[in-house]
Design brief:
The structure is a single chain. The chain is mainly α. It has a 3-stranded parallel sheet. Strand 1, helix 2 and strand 2 form a beta-alpha-beta unit. The protein is elongated.
Length: 198
């Protein structure tokens, strides 16, 4: 069952969720409260205030990054991800491999532009857009066509080496059921202003 609460700040949405979690704890049911990174500490404190010690064993506050890591750990997936410097170096290699096929980004080599390309590719990954999906769009501008070629090469390089950090969520999504982390648990989501496609 899906329930969506709407309302402005301070209207009681979070208090309602916490009360539902407390009811589940009293009945022995597991609950997971998914919150933004910036609100996790406050949510943990409020959960303990409302649910007491029983809340600490049957209810858990998590974030997307923590849930991702928990899923990957539970399924035995130990992979290395690129750090920011590694992302830039991998992007430089991707650019060099497709340079002759590029038109708009033919002379792309400046470090600032390479960093912007890393940001663009990361945003595409977070939004669930694959290199193939981008390249299949009809009548692409030369800039987007080049971005698609660069993204495809970057993605291929990451598949053979360390993974781009943005791709971890998609990997965890594919392993969610196998992890069993949400089995029998009610999931509550609070404090987000919006979501990406992932």
């Amino acid at each position: 069952m899906l329930t969506i609460l709407t309302g402005g700040p301070g209207c009681g949405k979070s208090a309602w969720l916490l009360e539902r979690i407390r009811e589940r704890c009293r009945q022995g049911g597991r609950s997971l409260l998914l919150v933004p990174e910036s609100g996790s500490h406050q949510a943990e404190r409020r959960l303990l205030e409302v649910c007491g010690n029983q809340g600490g064993t049957l209810a858990q506050v998590t974030t997307f990054s923590k849930l991702t890591e928990d899923i990957l750990t539970a399924t035995g997936c130990r992979l290395q991800t690129l750090d920011p410097g590694g992302q830039v170096l991998t992007m430089c290699l991707a650019l060099s491999k497709v340079q002759s096929a590029l038109s708009y980004y033919r002379r792309a080599g400046r470090p600032q532009l390479t960093e912007k390309l890393v940001e663009a590719v990361s945003e595409l990954q977070v939004c669930g857009v694959s290199p193939q999906q981008l390249l299949e769009v009809p009548d692409l501008s030369p800039k987007l066509r080049d971005l698609g070629l660069i993204y495809a090469q970057y993605h291929a390089l990451c598949q053979r080496g360390k993974l781009d950090p943005s791709a971890r969520i998609a990997l965890a999504e594919n392993r969610l059921e196998q992890s069993g982390l949400l089995s029998g648990a009610a999931v509550f989501i609070d404090g987000f202003e919006g979501f990406t496609a992932q």
